[in-house]
C-alpha cells in the first residue's frame, strides 16, 4: 500500500475531515445561503426562510456548531425585539469554493442525480405531503 492510500484512510486525514464537516445535512446549505443569497451576513429568520424544510431548532443547532467551528460569527444587537445576525468568517469563506463547485456539479449533472432513484423523505416533508 502506498503512503497516499494510507493517508486517505487515517482517521484525521484531510478528506475525512472535509466529509465530516459536510456530512451534516444543513452545514453546506447554510454556508451557501449566507454566501449566495445574503452576501455573507443574515438575520436568523431571514436565513430560515431561505432554507425551506429546516426547523428553527435545527437552524439554531447548525449555526451554533458552525460558530463553534469558526465558520460563522454571531452578533446580538441590544434592541427589542432581539436582533441576531450571523456572518461568514474568513475561514467560512474558504469553504464556499468547494461547496459552490459541488452545487454547480449537481446542477450540471441533474439527470445523473435523477437516476439514483428517490431518497427517503424527511418526516417533516412527508407530513406536509401526507398529513394522515
Bin the helical content.
Answer: 55-70%
Largest sheet: 3 strands, antiparallel
Number of helices: 9
By helix and strand content, what is the structural category?
Answer: mainly alpha
Radius of gyration: 18 Å
For the record, the CATH architecture of one domain stands as Orthogonal Bundle
Shape: globular
Overall CATH class of one domain: Mainly Alpha
Look at the structure and give the mean pLDDT: 86
Please mark out the parts with pLDDT under 50 across 5 or more consecutive residues, or reply none.
none
CATH-defined superfamily of one domain? Winged helix-like DNA-binding domain superfamily/Winged helix DNA-binding domain
The CATH topology assignment of one domain is Arc Repressor Mutant, subunit A
Question: In percent terms, what proportion of residues is strand?
Answer: 5-15%
Sheet with the most strands: spatial strand order: 1-3-2
Order of helices and strands: HHHEHHEEHHHH
Amino- and carboxy-terminal Cα gap: 54 Å
Tally the beta strands.
Answer: 3
Please describe the structure with a list of short key phrases separated by commas or semicolons.
mainly alpha; Arc Repressor Mutant, subunit A; globular; single chain; three-stranded antiparallel sheet; 132 residues
Task: Report on the architecture of this protein.
- The protein is mainly α.
- It has a domain at 26-108: Winged helix-like DNA-binding domain superfamily/Winged helix DNA-binding domain (Arc Repressor Mutant, subunit A), CATH 1.10.10.
- 60% of the residues lie in helices and 11% in strands.
- It is built from 9 helices and 3 strands; from the N terminus they run H-H-H-E-H-H-E-E-H-H-H-H.
- The chain has helices at residues 3-9, 14-22, 25-37, 44-49, 56-69, 90-94, 96-108, 110-114, 123-129; strands at residues 41-43, 72-77, 83-88.
- Strands 1-3-2 form a 3-stranded antiparallel beta sheet.
- Strand 2 and strand 3 form a beta hairpin.
- It is globular.
Amino acid at each position: 500500500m502506498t503512503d497516499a492510500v494510507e493517508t486517505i484512510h487515517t482517521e484525521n486525514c484531510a478528506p475525512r475531515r472535509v466529509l465530516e464537516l459536510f456530512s451534516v445535512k444543513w452545514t453546506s446549505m447554510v454556508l451557501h445561503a449566507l454566501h449566495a443569497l445574503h452576501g455573507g451576513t443574515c438575520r436568523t429568520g431571514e436565513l430560515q426562510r431561505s432554507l425551506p424544510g429546516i426547523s428553527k431548532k435545527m437552524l439554531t443547532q447548525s449555526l451554533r456548531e458552525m460558530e463553534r467551528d469558526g465558520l460563522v460569527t454571531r452578533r446580538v444587537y441590544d434592541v427589542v425585539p432581539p436582533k441576531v445576525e450571523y456572518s461568514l468568517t474568513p475561514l467560512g469563506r474558504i469553504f464556499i469554493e468547494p461547496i459552490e463547485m459541488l452545487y454547480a456539479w449537481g446542477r450540471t449533472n441533474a439527470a445523473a442525480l435523477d437516476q439514483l432513484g428517490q431518497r427517503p423523505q424527511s418526516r417533516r416533508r412527508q407530513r406536509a405531503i401526507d398529513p394522515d
